[in-house]
Amino acid sequence: MGTDTIAAIATAFSESGIGIIRISGDDAFQIADKIFLSKKEKAGELFSFENEKTYTMHYGYIIDGRSVIDEVLVSVMRAPGSYTAENVVEINCHGGILILQKIMELVIKNGARVAEPGEFTKRAFLNGRIDLSEAEAVMDLIQSKNEFALQASVNQLKGSVSSVIKKLRSEIIYEMAFIESALDDPENYNTDGYGERLSVVLDGIDKKLEELIGHANDGRMLKEGIRTVIVGKPNAGKSSFLNELLEEEKAIVTDVAGTTRDILEEDIRLGGVSLHIIDTAGIRKTEDKVEKIGVDKARKYAAEADLIIYIVDSSVDLDESDEEILEILKDKRFIVLLNKSDLKTAVTEEKIKQKLKSFSDYEMIRISILQHQGIKEFEETLKQMFFKGKVSFNHEVIITSMRHKEALLQARESVSMVKQSIGSGMSEDFYSVDLMNAYAALGRIIGEEVGDDLVNEIFEKFCMGK
Question: Which residues lie across from 61 on neighbouring strands?
């Protein structure tokens, strides 16, 4: 990494109350001195950011020659106690587009260059202030779509993932060091029964890896939203339910069966939970070519869903279309909504339970979309179904990155190979290769075993100024 000084507009480039321009690097203070006129200087005192204490803020003006551009507050952060671990100056100005642009041009003219996307966080990583998992958590924090994702990102930024990975790596490196020492100095290192002792250690590591991998799907749902598909017979109320959640008439609703023929996708936030929700065509046998395509799409999306919402028209009896839907629900998490509860009941909860006696992971709620009844109960059921007892932000580490999951799977595979070597009675030097592979795989999570290409790819996804 070069030692040049970088700068960027760190707030939205739009009309707003406040705008911030961030400067980081060896020449940050000198550049700021060239364009800043302190109130102290106007009073005849000498002023330079080089002489000011860290974590202080200074009132004055941004100037271009003799012209005043804006009235500002400038904060000073000395290395290594800054976001990038370099000298950092942040100019807090008024948020007008022209003002931000003119100040940024001044900063560049006086020695800085425009920062690349994510370059401030990238410097924090390369300078050792944060590891790669913490750096990725920064962007996850910015992009959080719900309270759960926000809390998971904060925990990762605080080092929840890092601390677990570092502990696992330290256990592995200890065993690698013991094997190396025993091979170099067999007289002073007794390896009798070592395979059995190592197996116990590996069982503990494997159990933790299994736990982390097991939570990865919950982590993806926290981060991206729960992939939710609405299914049911035509005219059961699927589109009306979507409109009720959106609080707007987004989906077309008529009393004509088969109105919905294509897929309608929306992102919805309910009680802190994010849903990527998909309204599908009513499932039934049909000769209509276009409707049949819609029904096939409904089956496909349901197969890939994290959650299925099965809407039943409780005013009419179940039929062969419902039997088809029950086949789709096998091995899925789902919520049954008995709609039209304001009408005479033809389908009771007991009748549905009889149909679902071989299913376990589901909930059932009686609702009336027309009467706006049951929606709050649906929200509470949704939260408890996915997160109660399964995701604890106080005690569990949540893996939200598929990159991290892949590395954990690779580490676990390597641990399994060591256990196989022990079971086959192979000598200790065979253990080291797979232990090293597990160690390296875990290192990729925190950035200790990654190449420049991957680092660049990760930070290119960041926004400007971060």
Answer: 37, 71
Classify each residue of 338-374 as buried b or exposed e, where b means 16 or more C-beta atoms within 10 Å of its C-beta.
Answer: bbbbeeeeebeeebbeebbeebeebebbbbbbeeeeb
H or E segment and range at residue 336: strand 334-339
Q: Report the phi/psi class of residue 216: left, alpha or beta, with left for phi > 0 and alpha for psi in -120 to 50.
A: alpha
273-279, strands of its sheet edge to edge: 264-270, 273-279, 226-232, 307-313, 334-339, 362-366
Peptide bond preceding 80 in cis form (omega within 30 of 0):
yes
Q: In the structure encoding, which two tokens stand for residue 250, read together?
A: 């987004």
Distances (CA, A) of 120 to 23, 129, 211, 350, 466: 9, 11, 33, 59, 5
231 versus 383: which is more confidently predicted?
231
User: String of b and e for 150-170 (b: at least 16 CB within 10 Å)?
Assistant: bbbbebbbebbbbebbbebbe
Question: Buried b / exposed e across 260-270, counting CB within 10 Å, b at 16+?
Answer: bbeebebebeb
Total H helices, total E strands in the chain: 17, 13
Is residue 261 a contact partner of residue 291, using CB atoms and an 8 Å limit? yes
- Determine the Cα–Cα distance for residues 276 and 146; give it in Å rounded to an integer: 12
CA distances from 220 to 172, 226, 274, 399, 407 (A): 28, 8, 11, 8, 15
What ranges make up the beta strands (E) of 189-242?
Answer: 226-232
CB 66 within 8 Å of CB 46: no
What's the Rg (C-alpha) of the chain?
A: 30
| pLDDT (average), residues 258-269 | 67
CA distances from 79 to 25, 217, 260 (A): 9, 39, 60
Sheet containing 113-114, strands listed edge to edge, beginning at the edge strand earlier in sequence: 36-38, 56-64, 67-77, 88-94, 18-24, 6-9, 113-114
The pLDDT tens digits of the residues spanning 330-362 come to 888 889 888 888 888 888 888 888 888 888 778
Tens of pLDDT, residues 246-262: 776 654 444 544 444 45
Rounded-to-integer distance, Cα 131 and Cα 72, Å: 33
Instruction: Give Cα separations from 184 to 181, 291, 463 (angstroms).
Output: 5, 73, 51
User: How long is the chain?
Assistant: 466
CA distance 416 to 203: 9
